[in-house]
Structures are given as C-alpha cells and as structure tokens.
Design a protein that fits this description.
Elements (H helix, E strand, L loop, with lengths): L2 H4 L12 H8 L4 E6 L6 H14 L4 E5 H4 L7 H8 L1 H7 L5 H20 L3 E5 L5 H14 L5 E7 L2 H7 L4 H6 L21 E4 L6 H14 L7
Helix pairs in contact: 3-11, 5-6, 7-8
The structure holds 3'-phosphate-adenosine-5'-phosphate sulfate and adenosine-5'-diphosphate (ADP).
GO molecular function: adenylylsulfate kinase activity; ATP binding; sulfate adenylyltransferase (ATP) activity
Pathway: Sulfur metabolism; hydrogen sulfide biosynthesis; sulfite from sulfate: step 2/3
GO cellular component, one term: cytoplasm
Length: about 230
C-alpha cells in the first residue's frame, strides 16, 4: 500500500476478480512494451507491425499511439477550449514543454499499467524523451505487477535519417524555428541507458523485420509463447 491508498478520503478497493484470474482466462501475462525514440524513428510503424504479428499468433494486445492519444486523453489546449473553456484548457491541455511531456507520459503510463493489469500485452509508442519519466512508468507497472513487466524498446534511428524521412514536415518547420521545443532539434532526447531491447532501426531492415526481432526477444523472455 502506498501513500495514496492510505488517504482516508480516497480508499483503495480490491477487485473481486484478480489479475491472476484474468490472465488465466486470457492465457497470457499482461505487460507493457514501451517504444521510445525520436519523431520519425519508426516507433508507430514498428509497434503496429508487432501488434499485427502478435495478433496473428493469438495474443491479446492493445496499442497506445502518440498522435491518437494527443487527440483525446492528452489533448492540447486549443482542442479543449471549445468544449471546456479557456481556463480548463490552460490547466489540463498538454503541449511539449518538459512538464507537459511529464504529465503526458504520467497519464499514458497510468493507462498502460491498467491495460497490463487487465492482462493485455500493451504496446505504447511515444517519444518519451526523459529517462526519469520512463523510469516512473517502469516503477508503476512493475510495482503493480512484477519485475520484467515493463519492456523498454529503444528505436535507435539516427537523427539524420529521421530528418530525411520527415513524413509530417515537422523537422523542416522545427529547423525554420516554427516549432519550439522540437525533440532532437531544440529539445533534448535522453537515450535509455539500459533498454531491454535496443533496435538499430536505421540499418535498412523493414519494420516487419524489426518487429520480428522484438517478437523473438519477447519469446526468449517468456513474455509470449507460441502454442
Ligand atoms: N515539439 C515537439 N517535439 C516532438 N514531437 C512533436 C513536437 N510537436 C509536435 N510533435 C508531434 O507529436 C508527436 C510526439 O508526441 P508524444 O506524445 O509522443 O511526445 S512526448 O512523449 O510527450 O514527448 C510526434 O509524433 P511522432 O512523430 O509520431 O513521434 C510529432 O509528430
Ligand atoms: N525501418 C524502416 N525503414 C524505412 N522506413 C521506415 C522504417 N520505419 C519507419 N519508416 C518510415 O518512417 C516514417 C516515420 O515512421 P513512424 O512510425 O511514423 O515514426 P514515429 O512513430 O517514431 O514518429 C514513416 O513514413 C515510416 O513508413
């Protein structure tokens, strides 16, 4: 029990159905596969390819993807203002400053932890540039489960390649000074010191090939087994 669970006004309620019960029914252990890397490094494409490969093998999965989450759970202020007003939008809308990214990853981490506790193999694809924010999610996920439930995948594509790809034209705008705090250009990216999986993702391999490397590592770690 942590500090929150002791607060008299917020009482923790144990569930009638345990995580173990859920996992027994699903025939798998829930976990979080956390992709991190620069914009354009391939997080979303590789995570989608892995999601597909897992599904084809009968795994129960869910993918939390950066752009989609920033349309809802972590929407920017201008998206919230119309329905909720300016003060609300200013308070809860998220941009890309360090604290906003911290809150973005905290919210997503909390959702990922819930999906893992529901027994799903949960994939997430966010830049998540700060080591401390990722470490907090690791602690949250493993604290409510067990060591090994958080698998960090560093999609290590050199900045030059990400910038060449520039599928959304954001690097061009960032170089022109039109987007402030752009990761890799005017904002830091802290590479994971000890990722469970380090993908050299700019070496000419296709996203499905890279996803297969991850799949093999997951099987090796006992996260997923082909029956
Ligand atoms: N300033 C800045 N820095 C980095 N990225 C930016 C920025 N502004 C917009 N974008 C677009 O938003 C996507 C990153 O959102 P994330 O939620 O993954 O970011 S973070 O984890 O909170 O750092 C990222 O998507 P991906 O390219 O899919 O990574 C960008 O398209
Ligand atoms: N291994 C790869 N080889 C070649 N192109 C790739 C590879 N991985 C991703 N891409 C391409 O790079 C672009 C950015 O990929 P994306 O998955 O959107 O990156 P991110 O989610 O990290 O921003 C897309 O156009 C995608 O098709």
């Amino acid at each position: 029990m942590d500090e929150l669970h002791h607060r008299p006004q917020i009482v923790w309620h144990d569930h009638a159905v345990s995580r173990e019960d859920r996992q027994r029914v699903l025939g798998q252990r829930g976990c979080v596969i956390w992709f991190t890397g620069l914009s354009g490094c391939g997080k979303s494409t590789i995570a989608n390819a892995l999601d597909q490969q897992l599904l084809e093998r009968g795994a129960k999965t869910f993918l939390l993807d950066g752009d989609n989450i920033r349309h809802g759970l972590c929407a920017p202020p201008d998206r919230l203002a119309a329905d909720h007003g300016d003060s609300f939008a200013k308070r809860f809308g998220l941009g890309f400053g360090p604290e906003d990214r911290e809150e973005n990853i905290r919210r997503i981490g909390s959702v990922a932890q819930l999906f893992a506790a529901a027994g799903l193999i949960t994939l997430s694809a966010f830049v998540s540039p700060y080591t401390r924010d990722r470490q907090r999610v690791r602690e949250l996920v493993e604290g409510s489960g067990q060591a090994g439930d958080f698998i960090e995948v560093f999609v290590d594509t050199p900045l030059e390649i990400c910038e060449q790809r520039d599928p959304k034209g954001l690097y061009k705008k960032a170089r022109a000074g039109e987007i402030p705090n752009f990761t890799g250009i005017s904002d830091p990216y802290e590479p994971p010191p000890h990722p469970e999986i380090h993908l050299a993702a700019g070496d000419g391999r296709t996203p499905p090939q890279l996803a297969e490397q991850i799949l093999n590592e997951l099987q090796h770690r006992g996260i997923f087994s082909v029956s």
